[in-house]
Amino acid sequence: MTATTIARAWMVRRADGMVLGFTDHDAVLTFDGIRFRPDHGMSARALVQATGLSVDNSEAEGALSDDAITERDVLAGRWDGAAVKMWEVDWTDPSARRLVFAGSLGEIARSQGAFRAELRGLSEPLNAARGRVFHPRCSARLGDGRCKLSLSGETFTAEAAIAEVEDGRILRFSGFPAYEAGWFERGRLLVLGGGAEGLGATVKNDTALPGGGREIELWQALGIAPVAGDRVRLVAGCDKRAVTCREKFDNFLNFRGFPHLPSEDWIMAPQAGGNRG
Question: 89 and 29 in contact (C-beta within 8 Å)?
Fold first, then answer.
């Protein structure tokens, strides 16, 4: 290939299977069953790839357009973690190409109708901690294969229609099912319908209101705010303590923590308060 016929092409694949292709060439390129459009929906800075396990120093940026990457989808988190590949291509012969990057989109920021996303290489997951952590609190996630608690039914899950939304993160309900105050704190909220369908967040505060009402405060507002009438599903919260596992969920047999570990003070000074000899 000669330098005058080199173009760059990007493929982005979301978790739901949607695929988009972009190129900095002035005409459409097609290979691997993907149509790479020259609409500047995405571009990227020069790659600075590390030989170790650090994040590759590069960013992808582009315009938020209706037929490519929309602001609504970015706010909804639908592009988070999307797979990315980048090629250098001879536009006169697309079969003559070289893969120069493969990885995923990291943190995505938006500003003035455009987005900027960190590119993370394939080695990035190797930076994550591996192995079991010995800690007094449970290391499982509520309802996962290690916890084994069934979240089906009305004991730990409730569905209701929103009556009022304040600041995008405080949701109020009327005629809410009877649960003790704080039952859903640290739990999850999932939007089941409307423009924010599929979005989820963690519950910060759960307050029972007079007359059977409920107020749910989220730690962070959803990317797309739900509106009155949208239905949501709430899952009970777990603070990972052994007493909560035993008394709230009756699931202590599957508790994945070490509640009888000595405190850090004992580890630093094991002779304190004990026999010296």
Answer: yes
